[in-house]
Amino acid sequence: MATSAYPEIMHAVRDQEPLIQCLTNGVVMDITANVILAIGASPAMCDTSTEAGDFAQVASGVLINAGTPSNEQYAGMRAAVAGANEAGTPWVLDPVACGGLKERTRFQRSLIADKPHAIRGNASEIIALANLDENAGGGRGVDSADEAEAAIPAARNLAERTGGIVGISGATDIIVSQNRITKITSGHPLMQKVIGTGCSLGAVVAAYLSVGADPHDAVVAAHAHHSAAGAKAAETASAPGSYKLAWVDALYALTAEELDRYAQIEEA
């Protein structure tokens, strides 16, 4: 797909205003909701075990992010996954800090059998989730200890097991499906200084998957929009506080021409 065609998916999100159910961690609920609104979608933080499954059947897309999990939240996430699969709702797994703690790692790996439509994480999380190397211990909390390129074999394995798309976040994002690899170079180092930039990307991916585009192209376009806004924001902000505001504004205002300008997309 030509780089110039990705803005069509960005505009489809804005036109369709998909409803995105975010079962996510308490640290990033606010920024995730604001990011979803900024890209033109609608957020819903419905995560209780008694309601999550029903809501997933009416949502346009679902995010599963067990960053600060509780037993109640684990139950809500399982209910949401079951509801999404029953209704055919695309859902995204963000395996936050996978490999770092045993319980969350077991939970996240167990969801592979439910075949997420997309998985989004940093290199260490993707490597740990695939569980190809029993010595892989994950990153440092939510930070990656590995380069994105090192996670490509693990991403290929996950794509084959789920039939879905795997996004590896890094200085260059890498999107992997069973027959295709795409690289996106964009963003800015200040994104690492703002809480929720990574976790909110999972919700953006869910929104982009919901509008009927080719799934691989949709995940590429989601990463491109997210990171191109990061590059644009750096032109007017030089510290984390002002950068956060500039980034959300850029997500909202990004044009097709700016998406092409700020995000370098290469088929590998």
From TrEMBL:
The keyword ATP-binding applies. Transmembrane segments: none annotated. GO terms for molecular function: ATP binding; hydroxyethylthiazole kinase activity; magnesium ion binding. InterPro entries: Hyethyz_kinase, Ribokinase-like. Its EC number is 2.7.1.50. ATP binds at R120, S169. SUPFAM superfamilies: Ribokinase-like. GO terms for biological process: thiamine biosynthetic process; thiamine diphosphate biosynthetic process. Its cofactor is Mg(2+). Keywords: ATP-binding, Kinase, Magnesium, Metal-binding, Nucleotide-binding, Thiamine biosynthesis, Transferase. The keyword Nucleotide-binding applies. It holds the Pfam family HK. NCBIfam families: PRK09355.1. This is Hydroxyethylthiazole kinase. It comes from Corynebacterium glucuronolyticum. The gene is thiM.
